[in-house]
Amino acid sequence: MASTTTIVIGAGHCGLAMSACLTSRSIDHVVLERAEVANSWRTQRWDSLRLLTPNWMTRLPGYAYRGADPDGYLSARDVSAMLTDYARAFAAPVRTGTTVTSVRAVGGGYVVQTDQGVWRAPTVVLASGAATLPTTPGLAQLVPPGITSLTPADYRNPDGLPQGGVLVVGASASGVQLAEEIYRSGRPVTLAVGEHVRMPRTYRGRDIMWWLDAAGVLDQRHTEVDDLVRARNVPSMQLIGSPGRTVDLNALTSAGVRLVGRLAGIQDGTAQFSGSLPNVCVLADLKLGRLLDTIDAWAGGTGERFAPTAVGKPPLGLNLRSGEISTIIWATGYRPDLSWLQVPVLDRKGRIIHDGGVTACPGLYLIGMPFLRRRKSSFIDGAASDAAELTAYLAGHLDTLASLERNAS
Known about the structure:
The structure is a single chain. By secondary structure, this protein is of the alpha/beta class. It has 2 domains: 204 residues, FAD/NAD(P)-binding domain (3-Layer(bba) Sandwich); 197 residues, FAD/NAD(P)-binding domain, CATH 3.50.50. Helix content is 27%, strand content 20%. The protein has a 5-stranded parallel beta sheet with strand order 6-3-2-10-23, with helices on one face. Strands 12-21-13-14-17 form a 5-stranded parallel beta sheet, with helices on one face.
């Protein structure tokens, strides 16, 4: 059994940010990664995907973007290369090809079983990510035979799809991007829209992320919101990584994408859509207006306002056996894979109970979840501050353990 002071599980941007902060404090540690550094960016992203945040927001502990295109957006391949170089730059102690099979609390510390052996440490950081497994609703099992079902993790480009119409279920960042790309390839596209966050790519002549960063919106802390559970489950913003180009529902309908309401059921081969689409869009428009008001209050003056979302009279049903739809893409989100975690920190829905990444089990920490400690925790840019603060908690716990050992002796 190997031992160390801290075991970090996952070598994505959050795990590497933790490693950098631990290294800066000379805390002995190892990073266990089931595949390669930045594996999900290598294997689970479609070809045209780019970050939603501009390059200048690609910041990690000891690293900031220094390229020639600060206002551009990194591709998945760029992100993978950047993280690989980042890990190499500070000699992150990553053990690749090491799959964690269990984490158990034992004797005031933790035992981590892997397919390459057993590790023991007084502290563990869970950095395996919030978007490990794509989620699909149970009604996906009711799709008639002959229709191809995919998730964004399976999709690569339109050429890999069967000929025919495509139903994209979900209208957050992934859904709107895929709907636009597939429609531009010449296929008819229907987009099923539920709750969403409307967002312009630019506002008052600057990228919207510049405003959110400068006005402090992204730095809002988890202790400053009234409904944290709600804040942690807000859909991703309807953005696309392309300078100055807004892809919202109005842009999609103008291009020719058909909008329908949330997919509520499938019965006898017919997809049934909610009739609440107009109300859902009104709510998204109102939230956008409030956000722009917040920016204006910080900046002074008043910027442009955007036309209300136009939905017309969307159909409430679609016969999936008619041949009109050949593919369904379930852009319905992701969830973490915590099947190996055998520590009592999960709620009845299998989510980790934590306070800003600090769990009730001493020495066990979490990073990489939405709104972990700040609103920007979901972005690469949020990992540095989250990792620094969690490292401080972890170091404090180690100091307490050392003090107890001194007193005991």
